[in-house]
Design a protein that fits this description.
The structure holds 2 protein chains of 2 kinds. By secondary structure, chain A is α+β, with helices and mostly antiparallel strands. Chain A has helices at residues 9-18, 31-36, 72-77, 86-94, 98-103, 106-112, 119-125, 143-146, 221-227, 234-247, 258-281; strands at 2-4, 22-25, 44-47, 57-60, 63-67, 129-134, 137-142, 147-149, 152-153, 160-167, 174-180, 190-199, 202-211, 218-219. The chains are: A alpha+beta, B alpha+beta.
């Protein structure tokens, strides 16, 4: 196996394209574990950890750019990530355990596209954009559009994510992430990420995304629409949750049966919404 | 017969060491990473071993082709059953080959072994071994395996179903005739999972073979050097005089390292390769190849009169022992023996089957059949209390066996302290207040539950040698393995208390089968109890020898002499008159009498079941032990939205007889509770068509530090009694046994949901909540 530590995005792209079977190495939390388990054997690893721009955080008027090599710990500690952006910070703060949060990165989570993990779910809820670098320069795309299947993204060979943009969203909007797992630090059985904007007791805008229940983060426009304009009464939540449960394609595994996951979706949606509303009032 | 030495060991310790929280001798090296485990050992020319597991749960082996593996550069030995003696091993039934022979009986069963210059080469070689199989029908459920048309795993050994490794029936009274007299009868079917030991150190062995003498030296992670010595010699057909076993630090065992693990195959590889071989399992290989707790399905019916006297109980237990019997028939003994619980129930009918299936073997695991039967019994007693409108603790107290009453089968309860444990648990947990349902967060419910716990300590034999050194210090040698539980410090404290020495004046030898006296095993809640006892016996003999010399040196009669702290023999009522152990040692070594040394042995006397009282069928007793008691209380919060259960606070009350080292004892109780918490809520091996689906610590979840209740109170009662050192009783396994029923009873109290299957995962609890509604 070959190994390179380029010091710029451009050098990294060259290295990636120089080898048929090259993979980016970000935090290594999953990639190295998979290599150790013999599940993958890349011919070349291109480490991104010497590229300074991938670690930078830039504040803009309409949001915040986070470098792809920012660890979950860094994201969790950044108090500028308030309002709608809080959904990403909340997910980063809760997922896995400190050792993983110290290693794993934003870009790595996107590239891995593991349907069990929750950061992608929060990024989709936050309407995040990803800046993708490739042979033809850089482009910004909705993170949601990157996830095409379990462990598969729409990134082309030789491309990687350089940074992520989190929009501030409407004034007064709150982001919230709720996870449910068997024990602390396990993958969630189900997670719910949402951004909610209330006007008094009426839901002005909401974006709900469910994790661990489909090959990609589950976002359903119809479920959002079912909630918008309502007072989020039990019936509204149950119906929106029902739509999501219907659209979900969960698997049976040691964390719970598919049926159980479907049962949890409306239940956890209700809890996530009421927790978000409590936060909005604080 | 046991070797009871008179006079009895000193009932009171000398000096202040016994009863102190003396730090464990291995504590510092463990927290700094200096501790040396088997995997840390390295010798010149050492090879690395690896095993190939069967891909099928049940298949005939048609042929082997190992030629490509042998041809791989760096490979020094490749073994299959064809290269090994055709000996089967097993503590109860000799049914296990070292490598599968003729057929495989579970997916993951070792079929071939490789030794190579490094581990990657060894693993590559495994991939080059070609084995042809003919897949056979398989069976994965204990009850299904007893059907007449079920696939058969082993050649029949006698009448009865060939898949029944053992069958037990115990009947007392006439249960069939008394059900009509019961005012309340409850019955249910309970299921418990195959829990795995998840010792932090996977099984590991370093084997060296002396090329001239053929003597095999094993360094290995085990609970018993002597079991390893016996089983390895048996498996390989060599005399025990050619097998030596040493035990480096052990990273947990919990019953999984009582019998042999990978010692015989590592020794065989070293013999074949003509070089030392170290074989350490990966976590996944350990989970797929070694053993688990027995999964069980238990039908139980219990009846009581209106005033809360339990009259009758019927029990049918199916223990799933997997592909090999291992300790299964003994586990079934304990499960049957405790099926009446610690209660006086005059009419009892217990049937128990220990059954082969095409899954990982099940064997010894902390609690040894008792966690399964306690779950059924203690959950059912709560249902009975509910049906009677009685407080659960009150019902238990009304039926608890007291000192002098008889166990199922007629053995006497010598120190019946269950009542004291329950009463203390009721006090310390503020039971009455917490039974009034506490208000809680929306969507959540709080409740509190109890379990009465009984267990035995003390089975099988131990011995000790105690020797006075020239400077008056003392060396103690027992063969007992400290698996991390702290027996080295506790046993040293026992010797300190027996002779009045400081910790610095004692040398506690680590186990080595070449030089240590025999000890059966660090298991069975027995090490402090049984090994501690033989240390006090041997120390007593040393004291007698010391006093004979002191009498001559001090010109005083023996009857006026006493031990004084620090290594002195003094004269009662003469504070200024004494002689040091060093002076006595000098006299013994150079003047008269010879070196001061003593050895002692003990075997807890086996109880013959009283067949006038009990009808007994098929109970191959391996020796019972001294009954010990505890009461466990858990307060839980149930999330009614998800079914998730959080244990908020817990109390584990144990009569330990006498506390030898409070910190170590509390550690045992807390560790037992946390392992019981995993058994109660999350831990379960899951198979799909015979393939283990969760053989990693990511998928199989043991509780982590964040899952443990913030307040976990170990409450130690001291009611010294019996043959243990200074009246100490065993505690090692007890802390696990009642956790699951206490938690499930608390779930019931919180929500009304009845969980009948462990672990009480959120999904199962949510379904039970929906069943309730």
């Amino acid at each position: 196996m070959r190994y390179a530590e380029p010091e710029s995005v451009e050098a990294a792209l060259l290295a990636l394209n120089a080898h048929e079977d090259a993979r980016c190495l970000a935090g290594g939390a999953s990639l190295v574990a998979m290599m150790n388990a013999g599940r993958i054997a890349p011919g070349m690893l291109v480490s991104l950890h010497r590229i300074p721009e991938l670690f930078t955080i830039t504040e803009a008027s309409d949001g915040i750019w986070l470098g792809a090599m920012c660890t979950h710990r860094t994201v969790a500690a950044d108090t500028r990530l308030g309002g709608a952006m809080e959904v990403v910070r909340g997910a980063a703060r809760q997922l896995a355990h400190p050792a993983i949060r110290n290693m794993a990165t934003l870009g790595g989570s996107i590239g891995l596209a593991d349907p069990r993990t929750e950061l992608p779910v929060a990024l989709v809820a936050a309407s995040a954009l990803a800046e993708v670098a490739g042979a033809h320069g850089r482009r910004a795309v909705p993170v949601e559009s990157l996830f095409v299947d379990s462990h598969r993204t729409s990134l082309q060979r030789g491309e990687f994510v350089t940074r992520v943009f989190l929009p501030r969203g409407a004034t007064g909007a709150v982001g919230h992430h709720l996870r449910f797992s068997r024990v602390a630090a396990d993958y969630p059985t189900v997670s719910v990420s949402l951004v909610l904007d209330m006007e008094g007791d009426t839901c002005q805008q909401v974006r709900v995304v469910v994790g661990s229940c489909a090959p990609v983060p589950l976002h359903l426009d119809a479920a959002d629409q079912r909630l918008i304009g309502t007072r989020l009464e039990a019936e509204d939540v149950a119906e929106a949750g029902g739509l999501l449960a219907q659209a979900a394609a969960p698997i049976d595994d040691v964390r719970g049966s598919a049926e159980y996951r479907r049962m949890l979706i409306p239940r956890l949606l209700g809890r996530a919404l009421s927790q978000a509303r409590e936060r909005a009032h604080v | 017969m046991s070797d009871d030495v008179r006079p009895e060991p000193a009932p009171r310790p000398v000096g202040e060491v016994l009863g102190q929280s003396v730090p464990k001798p291995d504590a510092r090296e463990k927290v700094t990473g200096r501790a040396v485990y088997t995997e840390d050992l390295c010798v010149p020319g050492m090879l690395h071993g690896a095993l190939l597991g069967s891909p099928h749960p049940h298949a005939r082996i048609l042929s082997y082709d190992t030629s490509r593996a042998r041809a791989l550069p760096g490979v020094r030995a490749v073994l299959t059953a064809e290269d090994l003696p055709a000996h089967d091993i097993g503590p109860a039934i000799k049914d296990q080959p070292v490598l599968a022979r003729g057929k495989v009986r579970y997916a993951g069963e070792p079929v071939a072994a490789v030794a190579a210059v490094d581990l990657p080469t060894a693993r590559r070689a495994l991939g080059l071994i070609d084995i042809q199989y003919e897949v056979l029908p398989a069976v994965f459920d204990a009850e299904e395996a007893l059907r007449p048309d079920a696939p058969v795993l082993h050649a029949p050994r006698g009448p009865g179903h060939p898949n029944a490794a053992s069958y037990i029936r115990l009947v007392e009274g006439t249960p069939d005739s008394v059900w009509a007299r019961c005012h309340v009868v409850v019955e249910d079917v309970y299921e418990t999972p195959a829990q795995q030991h998840i010792y932090l150190e996977p099984c590991s062995t370093l084997a060296e073979v002396d090329p001239d003498s053929g003597k095999i030296t094993l360094h290995t992670s085990t609970q018993s050097g002597f079991r390893v010595q016996a089983v390895t010699a048996e498996a390989l057909g060599v005399p025990m005089s050619r097998v030596r076993v040493l035990v480096p630090r052990v990273g947990g065992a919990f019953g999984g390292k009582v019998e042999s693990t990978n010692q015989p195959i590592t020794a065989a590889l070293a013999m074949a390769a003509g070089a030392p071989v170290r074989l350490t399992f990966s976590r996944t290989d350990d989970m797929k190849m070694m053993r688990s707790r027995h999964g069980a399905r238990i039908f139980m019916r219990t009846g009581a009169t209106r005033d809360g006297r339990i009259l009758a109980r019927q029990v049918r237990i199916h223990f799933d022992t997997g592909a090999y019997a291992d300790d299964g028939p003994f586990v079934a003994n304990i499960g049957s023996y405790f099926a009446r619980g610690p209660y006086r129930i005059p009419h009892v009918d217990v049937q128990c089957w220990c059954v082969y299936t095409n899954k990982l073997r099940a064997g010894a695991f902390r609690g040894f059949g008792n966690p399964q039967i306690h779950f059924a019994s203690e959950v059912q007693v709560d249902r009975l209390a509910e049906a009677l409108g009685m407080d659960p603790i009150e019902l238990r107290l009304r039926n608890a066996l007291e000192t002098g009453e008889k166990w199922l089968g007629g053995a006497p309860v010598e120190s019946g302290t269950l009542r004291a444990c329950l009463e203390r648990a009721r006090d310390v947990s503020d039971w009455a207040r917490r039974r009034e349902r506490t208000p809680t967060a929306p969507g959540k419910q709080r409740g509190i539950g109890v379990a009465a716990v009984s267990h035995v300590s003390g089975l099988l034999g131990s011995s000790a040698t105690v020797r006075l050194n020239e400077d008056g210090t003392v060396t103690v040698n027992t063969g007992a393995v400290d698996t991390g539980q702290g027996s080295d410090v506790a046993l040293t404290q026992v010797a300190a208390g027996a002779l009045g020495l400081s910790m610095e004046q004692l040398n506690f030898s680590r186990p080595d089968t070449d030089t240590s006296p025999y000890d059966w095993c660090s298991g069975g809640t027995r090490t402090t109890f049984t090994v501690g006892r033989v240390i006090t016996q041997a120390c007593e003999q040393v004291r007698v020898q010391l006093f004979a010399h002191a009498s001559a040196l001090l010109q005083r009669p023996v009857r006026r002499l006493e031990l004084r702290p620090g290594g002195f023999v003094g004269v009662r009522d003469e504070p200024g008159t004494s002689v040091s152990f060093a002076a006595i040692a000098g006299r013994a070594l150079y003047v008269e009498g010879g070196p001061i040394i003593a050895s002692a042995r003990y075997l807890y006397p086996a109880w013959q079941l009283d067949t006038n009282r009990t009808q007994v069928e098929g109970l191959p007793f391996m020796g019972n032990g001294f009954f010990v008691f505890a009461a466990q209380v858990a307060e839980v919060e149930v999330d009614e939205l998800t079914g998730h259960v959080e244990v908020l606070e817990a109390w584990s009350v144990h009569d330990v007889g006498r506390v030898i080292n409070p910190a170590a004892t509390e550690g045992q109780v807390q560790g037992g509770f946390v392992q019981g918490l995993g058994y109660a809520l999350t831990e379960e091996l899951v198979w799909n068509e015979g393939q283990l689906v969760n053989p990693t610590m990511g998928d199989y979840k043991v509780p982590g530090v964040l899952d443990v209740p913030v307040a976990l109170h170990a409450v130690l009662l001291e009611q010294p009694f019996g043959p243990g050192p200074f009246g100490a009783k065993g505690v090692g396994e007890v802390g696990l046994v009642g956790v699951a029923p206490a938690i499930c009873n608390a779930i019931r109290h919180a929500t009304g949901a009845q969980v009948r299957q462990l672990p009480a995962t959120a999904e199962r609890v949510l379904r039970a909540l929906m069943e309730r509604d």
